[in-house]
Design brief:
Length: 146
């Protein structure tokens, strides 16, 4: 079996699963706050999820229109790391319910790429979390915070 064909099949499958997962995140983010008293959805949550769904559809279109391109996997993983980082930052940093999504991106990178690139993806996910304590301290000392 050709390696590029197998990778393309994985990417096609992962793009569909990504869209399903983003839809599940949207459902959780909209329904969950209704059952927790005093908890509301961030104003950036819905536009961020809609943008992420749009990116997922764009990835699917690109995958179908340029099937031989080798950069699809890297683009999807990099886009997911950025979108998950934005989602985690907009939903509460350390207390975010979506912080475990980084694990899914690392697993996908380890399936699609070599060990070196999978470790690079894991390091990128870790480094994207590094500013969290600084942002948290800045928010704690902001004027008007309790």
């Amino acid at each position: 079996m050709d390696k590029s064909f197998a990778t393309r099949e994985w990417l096609d499958w992962l793009t569909r699963v990504r869209l399903l997962t983003i839809t599940l995140i949207l459902t959780i983010g909209v329904v969950w706050p209704q059952y927790i008293p005093g908890f509301s959805t961030n104003r950036f949550f819905l536009p961020l999820i809609i943008f992420w769904i749009t990116l997922g559809i764009l990835h699917l279109i690109l995958l179908r229109s340029l099937p031989q391109a080798r950069w699809h996997g890297g683009l999807q993983v990099a886009g997911d790391v950025v979108m998950i980082s934005l989602l985690v930052y907009s939903t509460g940093l350390q207390e975010s319910y979506f912080i475990s999504l980084y694990l899914l991106v690392i697993i996908v990178a380890s399936i699609l790429f070599s060990r070196r690139i999978a470790f690079l993806t894991a390091a990128t996910c870790l480094l994207s979390r590094a500013p969290s304590p600084a942002c948290r301290r800045r928010r704690a000392f902001a004027p008007g915070s309790s």
